[in-house]
Amino acid sequence: MRIRVTDHEGIEHALEALEGWRVMEIIRDWGYPIRAECGGACACATCHIYVDPDWVDRLLPLSDEEEAMLDQAFDVRENSRLSCQILMRPELDGLHVTLAPA
Ligand code: FES
Question: How many angstroms separate the alpha carbon of residue 46 from the centre of ligand 1?
Fold first, then answer.
């Protein structure tokens, strides 16, 4: 499986992704700039991403915790999500996300 990540310069990268991994972990482990300060505990909002509109409906809905944490992020949009709250599964092969401003 792969995900596609657009970085802060607008360049798209295809990253190998394993089932069960958090999208945040995939981005971080491939060395792209995502702070993810709380390590995936839904407690910092520094793993903020924008999900390509074509993919938004294929994700599980936001939890109350994720929604509350996103309220503290900058430049939140309709397609904002916390990447630590998205677990890779086969249906998400090809998922396209964009890194939010740091
Ligand atoms: S890594 Fe902290 S909320 Fe996602």
Answer: 6
